[in-house]
Backbone:
């Protein structure tokens, strides 16, 4: 499979102009089996994709099992997102919005995906959590992941991105 070069593509909500490199990568992903697809693509939208009746630890372990992540990777992701210890056994349905977001982000960390599609990744996080997700995204990019972020927080997204695309008055404008 041909890989896209690792980049952040910052997009305004609802629009992203695909270049030939990203289209080639997407085409290759569409031809994969579901089992391989799970390893390649990570998606975080407004709905965190968590099972409300499962604990934090069980949600993260589920996603970790899909890609063969180790117990130490699970523990490290939970610790990094501040959802370890006694909090790990709490049902996701009983968490605050920020705790749910941290759990979803820990799931992304253990997935080690090649393409991250993130819609408002900072939503529901406090300042420390926002800074932590920025660091996680930078690290994932340095490890070779391609990251597409849709955000209303233009200044924060611009500091993360190697390429920015905005929609202004319904028109796509690229800001590199």
Residues:
């Amino acid at each position: 499979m041909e890989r896209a070069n690792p980049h952040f593509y910052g997009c305004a909500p609802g629009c992203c102009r695909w270049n030939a490199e990203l289209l080639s990568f997407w085409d290759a992903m569409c031809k994969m089996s579901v089992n391989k697809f799970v390893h390649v693509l990570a998606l975080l939208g407004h709905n965190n994709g968590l099972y409300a009746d499962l604990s934090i630890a069980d949600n993260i372990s589920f996603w970790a099992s899909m890609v063969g992540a180790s117990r130490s990777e699970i523990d490290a992701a939970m610790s990094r997102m501040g959802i370890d210890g006694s909090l790990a056994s709490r049902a996701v349905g009983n968490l605050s919005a920020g705790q749910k977001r941290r759990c979803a982000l820990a799931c992304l960390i253990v997935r080690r995906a090649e393409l991250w599609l993130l819609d408002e990744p900072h939503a529901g996080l406090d300042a420390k959590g926002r800074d932590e997700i920025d660091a996680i995204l930078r690290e994932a990019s340095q490890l070779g992941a391609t990251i597409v972020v849709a955000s209303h927080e233009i200044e924060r997204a611009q500091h993360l991105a190697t390429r920015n695309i905005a929609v202004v008055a319904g028109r796509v404008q690229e800001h590199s």
Q: What stands out?
A: The longest helix spans residues 127-142. The radius of gyration is 16 Å. Strands lie at 8-11, 41-44, 115-119, 146-150, 163-168, 171-175. The chain has a mean pLDDT of 79.
